[in-house]
Amino acid sequence: MDLPQVSSPITVVISEIVKPGRIQEYEAWTTGINQDAKQFEGFLGIEIIRPRDHDYPEYVVIVKFDTYAHLRDWLTSPTYQAWMDKSYGLLAARSHQQLPAGLELWFTLPRAQARKVEQPPYYKKVALGVLAVYPLILLSDALLGSLLAGVPPLLALLISVVFVSALLTYPVMPWLTKSLAFWLYPNPS
Fold first, then answer.
1. For the chain, what is the HEC assignment?
2. Minimum mean pLDDT among 34-43, 51-60, 93-102, 150-159: which range?
């Protein structure tokens, strides 16, 4: 007997470093690909974090689909491939990371508690992520920026991602989630 497969929302974080002088073209490309992604079944949203420093134009794109199957449909579509072909020459580097949805990425609720608590709405998860990630990116830039100045960009990015991920996983997200539990998991009236 086949069991039904359950899939939760999935998030893909894409880091793209734009080649010098190609930012306007990249912005137009991003607008186009995002408009087409919205047309695919299961698309939940997209967020773009633009660079603060145009000397190092790194964009972080966060894409969310309702299931892995719908994300896979988008990533394997001719439409997506056409947009990837159009990006040739715009980027110096691109990296992808798939993340599970929900707060289970950061910690596991006890089983008894997990049965009683519904997942927070998507907008609250996004807000929590921004509250956690943005200060860590600023901290990483402040602490590591000058140290990584002479390091190849992909290696510098990897070191920054490891730094931010290590702090995000523990202690930042568990602390932030606990501190904002009243908002994330309000008691039903």
1. CCCCCCCCCEEEEEEEEECCCCHHHHHHHHHHHHHHHCCCCCEEEEEEECCCCCCCCEEEEEEEECCHHHHHHHHCCHHHHHHHHHCCCCEEEEEEEEEECCHHHCCCCCHHHHHHCCCCCHHHHHHHHHHHHHHHHHHHHHHHCCCCCCCCHHHHHHHHHHHHHHHHHHHHHHHHHHHCHHHHCCCCC
2. 93-102
